[in-house]
Write a structure and sequence with these properties.
Elements (H helix, E strand, L loop, with lengths): L11 E9 L3 H10 L4 E9 L3 H7 L5 E10 L3 H12 L8 E6 L5 H8 L2 H10 L11 E9 L3 H10 L6 E6 L7 E3 L2 E3 L2 E10 H15 L8 E7 L1 E3 L5
Antiparallel strand pairs: 1-3, 1-4, 2-3, 2-6, 4-11, 5-9, 5-10, 6-9, 7-8
Helix pairs in contact: 1-3, 6-7
GO molecular function: enzyme regulator activity
Protein name: Nitrogen regulatory protein P-II
Organism: Treponema primitia (strain ATCC BAA-887 / DSM 12427 / ZAS-2)
């Protein structure tokens, strides 16, 4: 893609990895190896029930949610390296998926422009295992008041969800509790992300919206984003 001046504009992707917290360093080491310029890490937790964890002998569901920006041409190499090191083809090893960007600020874009040719050559020299690019997945993002995530996931699973990740957050657009259309808004929030097949998305969103929507005590805001690539997950 080029702009009006004939200058190449890199096609960028937002790549998200969700792995065990203890494996976060493995991913960031690969980022350094592949010269990924921008990445951010947040701590989340898995949504497996405690009885399942006991059966599996797992004591914690702490997750690392790692977000990075990468050129489209370099994404397959990045995903292949992470999948190889973490064994993403094995159940429970983690997932990775990509989201398209609709815009980015100019200074960040300029950083990527300077390395278009280098990354193009690297991608040719390396054997690349393509990630699935069929657009059959969506990322359901729900922001609810703190304390509702377990009940939320119970309803989501009944509607077809296979799992999710919870990230603690808080609103910063105001000072103290406020009312939005007459509804009290709490500061402390839980962000629940669910990767679902497009066929199941509507059923899941409808179920959780009815039980935890903006007019309920959970005060949920629920939306979905298109996913254009996924690795480490089988949702057949």
């Amino acid at each position: 893609m080029t702009n009006s001046d004939g200058i190449k504009i890199p096609l960028l992707k937002c790549v998200i990895f969700i792995v065990d917290w203890t494996k976060a360093q493995v991913v960031t080491d690969i980022f350094e190896q592949e010269k990924v310029r921008f990445h951010f890490i947040s701590k989340g937790r898995g949504t497996a029930r405690s009885d399942i964890l006991d059966i599996l002998g797992i004591g914690s569901t702490e997750k690392a949610v790692i977000i990075c920006l990468e050129q489209d041409i370099g994404v397959p190499v990045l995903l292949k390296e992470v999948a190889k090191k973490l064994g993403l083809h094995n159940p429970g090893a983690g997932i990775a998926f990509t989201l398209p960007l609709s815009g980015i600020n100019q200074p960040i874009l300029q950083v990527f422009k300077t390395s278009i040719e280098k990354n193009f050559n690297i991608s040719i020299e390396k054997e690349v295992e393509k990630v699935s690019t069929e657009t059959k997945f969506d990322l359901i993002v729900s922001v609810v008041n703190q304390g509702y995530s377990d009940e939320f996931m119970t309803v989501a699973r009944e509607a077809g969800a296979t799992g999710g990740t919870v990230i603690n957050a808080r609103g910063i657009a105001h000072q103290g509790p406020v009312k939005f259309f007459g509804i009290s808004v709490q500061d402390e929030k839980e962000i629940i992300t669910i990767l679902a097949t497009r066929e199941k998305k509507a059923l899941i969103m409808q179920a959780v919206s009815q039980a935890f929507g903006i007019n309920t005590k959970a005060g949920g805001i629920i939306f979905s984003l298109p996913v254009d690539g996924v690795a480490g997950l089988d949702l057949k």
